[in-house]
Design brief:
The complex is a heterodimer. By secondary structure, chain A is an all-beta fold. In chain A, the strands form 2 sheets. Chain A has a 5-stranded mixed beta sheet with strand order 1-9-8-3-4, with no helix packed on it. A 4-stranded antiparallel beta sheet of chain A has the order 2-7-6-5, with no helix packed on it. Chain A is globular. Chain A is 0% helix and 46% strand. By secondary structure, chain B is an all-beta fold. In chain B, the strands form 2 sheets. In chain B, strands 2, 4, 5, 6, 9, 10 and 11 form a 7-stranded mixed beta sheet that branches. Chain B has a 4-stranded antiparallel beta sheet with strand order 1-3-8-7, with no helix packed on it. In chain B, a hairpin with a 2-residue loop joins strand 5 and strand 6. The interface between A and B is medium-sized, with 21 and 24 residues.
Chain lengths: 109, 113
Amino acid sequence: DAKTTQPTSMDCAEGRAANLPCNHSTISGNEYVYWYRQIHSQGPQYIIHGLKNNETNEMASLIITEDRKSSTLILPHATLRDTAVYYCIVGGSNYKLTFGKGTLLTVNP
Amino acid sequence: DAGITQSPRHKVTETGTPVTLRCHQTENHRYMYWYRQDPGHGLRLIHYSYGVKDTDKGEVSDGYSVSRSKTEDFLLTLESATSSQTSVYFCAIRELGLASEQYFGPGTRLTVT
C-alpha cells in the first residue's frame, strides 16, 4: 500500500472549516483514499473515502487532486467534538489498511 | 453504530498466563481484524480473517493466534502473555466489497504485569 504524509498537528477555530491535507504521491491506480478519525480512547471512526472524484457525506468532504497524489479532508464547520487524530490511509484490494500517525486536530473555542 | 462488541473491556493479567479476547459482530460482515495500539506506533494489524476458519497474519502477529469458528466471533489469544503485549486492542469488521470501509469496536485495554 502507498505511504501517506500528514502534518503532525493542526489547530482550527470552532465554527470554521478545518482543512486537513494528506500527501500520497506513490498511490497506484486502484488504491482508494480513506479517512478515519480517533477521538481519545475510542475506536477509530470511518469518515469518508474516494478513488478519483471528490466525495461528500454528512460528516465531511474529500477533495482529491487530479493527479491523485494528494487529498484534503474538509470539515465544513468544526466543533469541539471534532478534536481527534485524523488518519489518511491509502488502500487497495488487499482489504488491509495501514494506519500512520495521523494529524491531531485541535478545535479551539 | 456498527454492531461490534469486545470483551472484556479491561483486563489485568500476569506474565505467562494465557489470555483470550473476544470480538463479536451482529452485522454478518465477512472480514474481521485485530489491531493493537501503542503510544508512538499508531494502529498495527495483528491478524485478520476473510471468512470462517480463514485467517492470515498482519504485521505484528508474533505471540498471537486467532480463531474464527463462526461468522460473528473472532478470538485473539495470547498463549503466554508478556509485558510487551500490554496495549489497547481493537477489533474491526468490514463487509465484502472492493472499497468497503472498516468499523471498529470500543477496544480492550490489556495490562500484563
